[in-house]
Design goal:
It holds the Pfam family Mito_carr. This protein has a domain of 32 residues. The chain is built from two helices and no strands.
């Protein structure tokens, strides 16, 4: 169980939370905050795409970006 900051626990379990949120706030309340999470995903995809492009440019100009071999001999 997660620690609370002195506040009483609202829900007994995840199913109870699911039912209470739908009952009290409506189905759309389950998707509150989804836009912010989507923006985080888009930003992460942008970082990955940027890294891939920089890697291709580096290889084209002769830089070898080999991962280090961490093996025991």
């Amino acid at each position: 169980m997660m620690l609370t900051s002195g506040n009483p626990v609202k829900y007994r379990n995840s199913m109870h939370a699911f039912h209470e949120i739908i009952r009290l706030e409506g189905f759309q309340a389950l998707y509150r905050g989804v836009t912010a999470n989507m923006l985080v995903g888009v930003a992460g995809a942008g970082v990955l795409a940027g890294y891939d492009q920089l890697h291709r440019i580096a290889v084209r100009y002769g830089y070898v970006l080999e991962p280090r071999q961490n093996t025991m001999k």
